[in-house]
Amino acid sequence: MLSGPLTADRFGRKFNLALLTVILTLGVVLEIVAKSSPVWLVARLFAGWGTGMVQTGIPVYISEIA
């Protein structure tokens, strides 16, 4: 949740949405292919990072569109 507003202010909301999509996709793919605990931990960190960006980015983007 800390990195979402920083990237949104610097690069824009649409870039932020694209970035969080890439981060969440990377987290899901890593969780699927994880064979060891450290890889799974990294996958969960990426998933948590992407979820935090979703929580800060999506409500602001929806309010701008509405």
- Could you give the count of β-strands? 0
**Quaternary:** single chain
Unreliable residue runs: none
Sketch the major β-sheet: none
Mean pLDDT: 91
Task: List descriptors.
single chain; 66 residues; mainly alpha
Quick gist of this model?
With 66 residues, the chain is mainly alpha-helical.
Polypeptide structure, described:
With 66 residues, the protein is an all-alpha fold. The chain has one domain (3-65). It has helices at residues 3-11, 13-33, 37-65. It is elongated.
Q: How is this fold's topology laid out?
A:
Blueprint: H1 3-11, H2 13-33, H3 37-65
Helix pairs in contact: 1-2, 1-3, 2-3
